[in-house]
Amino acid sequence: MSRPENDAPALRIDTSRPHPARMYDWFLGGKDNYPVDEAMGRQMLLVEPSVPVMAKVNRAFMHRATRWLTGQGIRQFLDIGTGIPTEPNLHQVAQQEAPSTRVVYCDNDPIVLAHAAALLKGTPEGAIDYVQADAREVDSILEHAGKTLDFDQPVALSLISLLHFVSDEDGAYELVDRLTDVLAPGSHLVISHLTADFHPEEARKVDELYKANTLTLAPRTRDQFSRFFDRLDIVDPGIVAAEAWHPGLGEPVPGQDDIVSAGYVAVGRKP
């Protein structure tokens, strides 16, 4: 295991405005958030009360996808947009199935770095590292990840609830292309992504909340989401709501049967 890269930003946590990772933590019932995050979270609950259930459904998809990938023989994961640690973390799920799994986490929020020690506790047989970087700093991420991962072998690239915070103008599609370009054949791409397709009015109000707090939100349609997989083979069951992706690989989230999902998920394989 390596120590986290670039630990200086740990001293610069911005609590003057909400941060998506800390809001997600609040929705999951965590304690690593600030009043500004809770305040915006409560505003979102007024628009859509089921957001906490949706957040847990999204997290459960990550667990099932990780379990499925280890079952396919994947032993390396690059998780960008890691978020604040919430057990079980990706490496705990993967290493439970395959103890020799190697995982590199990446996030740009200093509060995640402050908890990196929790992310770095894995099996003796495996390896874990954490990189402090913005998702768009592709060269830096790959350079540091290459110290732990062998990019000549298949890697699972996990982008969970990340890309709807990157606009088209900011290069969301180019970001995915650059990352998947370096992956070996047999690698997989895992994405969960917010959409306005199912809740258009609520999505409009949430978008207004984000803009009012100078935050980027870019929900995408099914067709726009599918573009991320243009050069990959999408595995069964295809592009679906999070709760519909191999539900047998995990326990259902309480309350998920009473909601309509707010996002799409899919896993694609590089030929």
Kindly describe this structure.
By secondary structure, the protein is of the alpha/beta class. The protein has one domain (8-269): Vaccinia Virus protein VP39 (Rossmann fold). Strands 1, 2, 3, 4, 5, 6, 7 and 8 form an eight-stranded mixed sheet that branches. It has ten helices and eight strands. Mean pLDDT is 92; it is low at 5-11. It is globular and about 45 Å long. The two termini are 31 Å apart.
List the helices and strands and how they pair.
Layout: H1 20-27, H2 35-47, H3 51-71, E1 76-80, H4 90-97, E2 102-107, H5 110-114, H6 116-119, E3 127-132, H7 138-145, E4 156-160, H8 172-181, E5 188-194, H9 200-212, H10 222-226, E6 233-234, E7 240-241, E8 263-269
Parallel strand pairs: 1-2, 1-4, 2-3, 4-5
Antiparallel strand pairs: 5-8, 6-8, 7-8
Features:
271 residues, alpha/beta, Rossmann fold, 35% helix
Compact summary:
The chain has 271 residues and is of the alpha/beta class. 35% of the residues lie in helices and 15% in strands.
